[in-house]
Amino acid sequence: MKVTHVIRGDDHLNNTPRQMNMLRAMGVEPPVYAHLPMILGPDGTKLSKRHGAVSVLYYREEGYLPEALLNYLARLGWSHGDQEIFTLEEMTALFDIADVNKSASAINPDKLAWINQQHLMKLPPAQVAPELRWQLDRLGVPVGEGTQLEAVIVAQRERSKTLREMAVASRFFFEAPTAYDDKAARKHLTADAAPVLEESMARLSALEDWRAESIHQAIQAQAETSGFGLGKVAQPLRVAVSGGGVSPPIDQTLAILGREETIRRVRAAIEFAGC
What we know:
With 275 residues, this protein is mainly alpha-helical.
């Protein structure tokens, strides 16, 4: 079959002399054999189903990028200096079987999540977009065409370790909240907040240029004029448009949502706060 190298776990080491002798008895020169240390579970014992050993497709469902999983698996048994993050091209060019570790490595879910976030940060948003769309589809969130998905990735990638995390945190960009987080609403969608939101809506409606920079200037001007401080203006807006108290920077969030959708959600929050 023209196999030149057999690279496998060191649990097969005892089989190798027998197999080499069988090949030689048939007049065939054996391939080069390499036996790698086994990958261990987080507790240092042999990886097994009790550790949650799963199919590779599980990692896609959990929101890991293929590039990140390959990077992590390569680093489990191989290193190149202190470099941690590799593209596929770099791994292909730099890998040498002589550099494979002699000691066993243990699965570390936290390290995998960190590597995944590094790839989320480095990859072009257009390359990540199909995977985020797939995650949103699984949540039943309708995603239209256009560049909105890429803008969401840029806004969320610093705060998301996996695409699944990103999808859950980003669904408000694609569908208006049907309810508000109770704690956030009690604090920021009060009767006192209604006039603040009304002024925000008026200032935002008057903007000629709907970009994050101009939105920030409008919110900042309202905060300075009212004397409330930026948080007292931005947080009611954040709860109004996202349904909760956490989102990317409010100017970036509103820029992605668009003027019409922002105004519609703020108006609904004013009605809620005035009840």
